[in-house]
TrEMBL record:
Name the UniProt record assigns to this protein: Tyr recombinase domain-containing protein
Record-level Gene Ontology MF annotations: DNA binding
Gene Ontology BP annotations: DNA integration; DNA recombination
Domain Tyr recombinase intervals: 223-402
Highest taxon, organism lineage: Bacteria
Length: 411
């Protein structure tokens, strides 16, 4: 019976697993003396290789990629092969999808390095799932082993559709199957598009065909996130009075029109003056941050919003919204917290992102020009802007038509 691990040993293992999250097929183990050891192992029937270099060092990365890509090991590498077993035969000596993914996510790839850490993490998670996906044509093989010259549009569709789920719902008294999880399916397609777009444009790779071309994403919810109604906003304000952190969060979201990633950073460090000496926020938005697509937002610090900030004792000095520990929010944690806040107010259909849409719609109702609203929200095209205001603008067009019709009847 294996000996139970101490808390310190378990912590060592957990830390090592986290550090190895971007290294596929690497597994940390503790010897009976508590020494941490890392093995590279692709599964039953393959060699189990010990990597002696310390995790995080240049030597570790060099040995890992040499093993992973089946290249000769560096002369400096000291590795031990444990329990040698016949390695399974490759179905082809040509480059595989797993090999291409490794090239794409390698630290020397400038296209990968310029991505935000959150984007890298998200793409890595999807790419790891794609690599591990069992291939239906040959038992025991995954898509990591599939040759690139056999990776056709058929397999792009297969991977996309592997995420689709079917749920039974009741419509007009009858059971109906409804497709779900399309967002995940579209995410897989999006990542594969980025992978092959890079591969085709990379001069060092002999890849000339992009198998994702012409493959469509599944249509999603055309109206996107639920847009708060004026009644929803009023109900929230009645639940959380001025001075509460919940009210401050809501007012910042609806008045500044910013995404959650910018709301959790908003504070006095971004304050400046406009040409007439009035307080405004000026900052580079988090979305596409550090790339040519990044947008600078110019956001008025309205007088009534300033008063709400001043009335909130929990507001931070440099960052207005802080957690219970007094530290700035991580955007994902803030979203979860605000989700609970909305539920407590009896608004389960509402979300933080829906307030951005509600703020835009309110300014449209007040007849502010699109370009003025877009300067605050950071939208760069009217197509993006119209996506947020689609429902209201349809209703508004109908009301204008009805007004014109009634006017003609009177005439």
């Amino acid at each position: 019976m294996p000996r139970a691990k101490t808390k310190a040993q378990q912590k060592t293992l957990d830390t090592a697993k986290k550090a190895l999250s971007s290294f596929m097929y690497c597994y940390p183990e503790l010897s009976r003396h508590g020494k941490l050891t890392v093995f590279y192992w692709r599964g039953k029937g393959t060699k189990r290789v010990r990597i002696r270099d310390e995790i995080g060092t240049k030597g570790f990365s060099e040995v890992y990629w040499a093993i992973h890509e089946n290249r000769p090991l560096p002369e400096s590498a000291l590795t031990t092969i444990i329990a040698p077993q016949p390695a399974r035969k490759s179905i082809a000596e040509k480059p595989t999808l797993g090999w291409l993914i490794n090239q794409y996510t390698h630290s020397t790839n400038p296209q990968w390095r310029k991505l935000k850490e959150s984007t890298k993490k998200s793409r890595n998670n999807i790419l790891n799932l794609i690599r591990a996906q069992s291939h239906p044509s040959i038992d025991g093989y995954t898509f990591a082993d599939w040759p690139l010259d056999k990776f056709s549009p058929k397999w792009v569709k297969y991977l996309r559709d592997s995420r689709i789920r079917w749920e039974v719902t009741i419509e007009e008294g009858e059971e109906v199957e409804v497709m779900s999880n399309t967002e995940s399916a579209n995410s897989w397609l999006k990542v594969l598009r980025a992978l092959f777009k890079w591969a085709v444009n990379h001069s060092g790779l002999d890849i000339h065909v992009n198998p994702t071309l012409g493959i469509s994403a599944y249509p999603g919810n055309s109206d996107g996130f639920y847009c708060w109604s004026p009644e929803d906003v009023e109900k929230f304000r009645n639940t959380y009075p001025i001075g509460t952190k919940e009210r401050l969060a809501m007012e910042l979201l609806i008045r500044t029109l910013q995404r959650r990633g910018d709301i959790v950073r908003l504070g006095r460090q971004w304050l400046t003056k406009d040409s007439q000496g009035r307080s405004i926020f000026k900052f580079r938005q988090e979305k596409n941050g550090g790339t040519a697509k990044a947008v600078t937002a110019y956001v008025p610090f309205f007088d009534d919003l300033q008063q709400i900030v001043e009335a909130t004792s929990s507001a931070g000095e440099m960052v207005f919204l802080v957690s219970e520990r007094g530290t700035p929010w991580v955007k994902e944690s803030f979203t979860n917290w605000f989700r609970d806040v909305c539920d407590h107010a009896g608004l389960p259909q509402c979300s933080a992102h829906g307030l951005r849409k509600a703020g835009i719609v309110e300014l449209i109702r007040q007849n502010y020009p699109k370009r003025q609203i877009m300067a605050i929200s950071g939208h760069t095209t009217e197509k993006q802007f119209d996506h947020y205001a689609r429902s209201y603008m349809r209703q508004h067009a109908m009301e204008q038509m009805l007004d014109d019709y009634n006017a003609r009847q009177v005439a």
